[in-house]
What does this fold into?
Amino acid sequence: MRLSWLVLLAASAVFVNAQACGKECLRGLIDGYMFRMSRHNSTTLNLTPEAKFTENGESMPIGEGFWKTAGAATYKLYVLDPQGGAAAVQAVVREGTQPHVSFLLRIKVAGKAISEVETIVARKAQSPFFAPEKLPIPPVTLLQLLPFADRMERKDLTAVVDSFYSGRYTAEVNRFANGEQLTADALKGATVSKRRTPVVDVEHGLVLSIGTLSRAGTSPALLGEIFKVKGGKIEEVQGVMVNASR
It folds into this structure.
């Protein structure tokens, strides 16, 4: 009886692993989404029946919004999180005659289907910082796998990011918004509320944070930032920012 139970547990584990979406699966879902969006056809997306979609914080049917005008991507920086069943990509996307639209895509998966899609779309004049043409290829430091000695647990990675937003960070951190490098005081006095860290890549030390940035005298902005954390320290921050509509 005990042997039968162990065999059943082993079979269940194999089934769960077979159903899980690993890094290549997640990358495939992201690339498939981007390709279909560039063709303006969402009908063949692998979605769950109740999949949700937002663009710049607004809920809408998938296939609407940027889906109608987006072209091919010229830049992609991935964050892949099999453990959390999530993935994201920061991208630069063509739109009509405009070669540079700053774009962030986050997905949540159930099994191997997309259950949730969140996007941030920033065009020129929709953010105080905008230079996506400066993003020809992803920074090497963000692409590198971390040595085992420099890897941290998920909760510790998010704690480092929390500390950054609490103001406990050094001025030499390289921080970019829509491809433009920010000075140490570019966002001085700003706060980021309603913040989440929905995607964490332990192997690369990458953390995606999304929230609403507010600063006295300016309109709020929707902000998605990818942090590179190595050995407990932030090496670089790449973000997409767009003025919030409400």
In short: Residues 33 and 45 are 7 Å apart (CA to CA).
